[in-house]
Amino acid sequence: MFPIAFHPIYQHPLPEGHRFPMLKYELLPQQLVFEGTASPSDFYEPEECDLDSVLAIHKPDYVNDLLHLTLHAKAARKIGFPLSKELVQRELIIAQGTITGAQKSFDTKVSFNIAGGTHHAYATHGEAFCLLNDQAIAAQFLLNHKLAKKILIIDLDVHQGNGTAAIFQNNPHVFTFSTHGKTNYPFKKETSDLDIAFDDGATDEEFLHTIASVIPKLIATQKPDFIFYLAGVDILATDKLGKLGCSVEGCKKRDELVFELCSKHQIPVQVSMGGGYSPDIKTIIEAHANTFRAAKDIF
């Protein structure tokens, strides 16, 4: 099928209160194999990302504080997880999973990271459960190694990719596009190259009509030779942290639209799974699994 980054540490080591939403990192691969959407051979276990790749995006003082667990208490609270060596290792592995997937996408057309989508991580700090920005690190890796000249980041999570927007604000080689809930976190938005903020309760029809009219124009004008897609399923009406009104089927149609355009224009794409916080874990798994099913049908 296509390469999927997964490492057992994705589901560890998180405090008790955060373990429910993290169950998806264990259950999603099991579901994909059980139903035949993926086979065990499709999965690869990334190692830790090398520091040169991290430092191409994140500032040395911040990275040093992460590695030595010396973040100021206020900065650590902004992240939301108790800082630990295992947590930092997890973020380094997630980042490498996205880099490796991006490299593989040139041959396979599409790749996935079961985790990732850590778009709230800035160059100088982390926030909202994001320490290192995996797709930003991978995008800069492709540029630095001359594997891509123009990158489009399509962030369709319910939250604005504020860290990603800030990181690439003055980089003409990366175009950042974010759709999100207008009243969702972050309450102070950054400026992406293109932002579309939806009102609370926005339906499938509104969401799909908007992206169907916008993304083809972006591809035509920006002419990207690589796409990073953040496929968060927190746009669902059931999501505890989201305020939009999309259905599971609408979420799947969103993924199909993105993949059909990538396939039509022969643009390789790397997909990080992003958020998903519906109260029923079955809903989260079904919505995420639909993203993989859509890719299998289209590529």
Structure explained in plain terms:
This protein has an eight-stranded parallel beta sheet, sandwiched between helices. It is of the alpha/beta class. The chain has helices at residues 19-22, 24-35, 51-55, 60-67, 73-79, 85-108, 134-144, 162-167, 204-222, 248-264, 281-298; strands at 4-5, 43-44, 110-113, 151-155, 174-181, 194-198, 226-230, 269-272. Helix 2 (24-35) crosses helix 11 and helix 6 (85-108) packs across helix 7. It has a single domain (4-298), classed as Histone deacetylase domain (Arginase, Chain A, 3-Layer(aba) Sandwich). It has eleven helices and eight strands.
Summary tags:
single chain; 12% strand; alpha/beta; 11 helices; eight-stranded parallel β-sheet; hydrolase activity; globular; Deacetylase; 299 residues; His_deacetylse_dom; Arginase, Chain A
Short summary of the structure?
This protein is an alpha/beta fold and 299 residues long. It has helices spanning 19-22, 24-35, 51-55, 60-67, 73-79, 85-108, 134-144, 162-167, 204-222, 248-264, 281-298, and strands at 4-5, 43-44, 110-113, 151-155, 174-181, 194-198, 226-230, 269-272.
The CATH superfamily name is Histone deacetylase domain
Q: Which whole number gives the mean pLDDT?
A: 95
Number of strands: 8
Report the top-level CATH class: Alpha Beta
How much strand content do the residues show?
A: 5-15%
Main β-sheet, spatial strand arrangement: 2-1-3-8-7-4-5-6
How far apart are the termini? 9 Å
Taken from the alpha-carbon principal axes, the silhouette is globular
Q: Per CATH, which architecture?
A: 3-Layer(aba) Sandwich
Structure class: alpha/beta
Number of helices: 11
Radius of gyration: 17 Å
Low-confidence stretches: none
Helix content percent band: 40-55%
Examine the coordinates and then state which fold CATH places here, giving the name of the CATH topology: Arginase, Chain A
